[in-house]
Amino acid sequence: MFHVDLGPLDALLLAADFYGALARSDWRMERDRRRAIPILVSKGESLACVMLEAHFGRLFSPSAPADAAEPVAFLMRRPPRESRAFVVERPFEMRAYPLRDFRLPPRGLRAYLRALGLSAVRFDGPGRIQYLLDPGALEPVPDRGRSA
Amino acid sequence: MDSDELVETLEAMPADDRDGAAADEEKVRYFIFTVCGASYALPPSAIKEIASDLEVFPVPACPPYVPGLVNCHGVPHTVFDLRVLFESERHRAGTFLVLNLDSDDVAFGCTEVDEIAEFPVSCLSTFAARDSEARFFAAMIELPGRRIPVLSVERILQTLENDLA
Known about the structure:
By secondary structure, chain A is mostly beta strands.
């Protein structure tokens, strides 16, 4: 899975959820004016775009600064719904974790977190939490007029 | 029966009976703990474990009385900050009461664990809704000069469920 360092926490994305990845030089960003969301355009294809950092910035308190990195877009098909791109602007790497390391959130929070796109947690040592993302549940964050 | 009649009745009662009545009064045990100087009670059976020095990890967009999750033996537990729930002030808990629940994994943050104490049933009153946080209490332990609310875990969890709905 893709392990993305988001400062105070890590986001984990299952590599199997994506059919491809694009380097920054392979796409341009546009803006869907009607939905006020960023659109990734590559090779004639337009994909609604989830900016991972913006998504987590909305969910969590302002995060501690982490290293920026060359953006990468992960591409996901979601038939019958529109395909989607997930742009990662933080350092990431491929890692493998045993399934037994993951835990569902406590029952009282489970449905709520699932709706926010967080499907499981993993504790990485005593001082670090990792959230396994359900990319199918992550929605593009409206940019409220900001240029995409 | 007026006071005089009560005293007469007690005087007529053999001393053994009076002692026996006091000794036979049913008692209940409660686990007493404090959150920033305020005491609260829970049935001892409600608590599975007392854990210290656990890091609270952030959880997104939850009500302020849920500061995050703790890792208790590898299992994430929802933390409740009771001080926020009752007084809207943040409290950094040093100790966590891991609750013994079948339905969920939950820990209450607290400042200090006091004791497991025994109280006569007559000290318990059902709590009248005269305090704003009464909805979180199942009963009140009434002692001379001291009142200790017995928390209703069910109602506290219900509050989170309602707030997230």
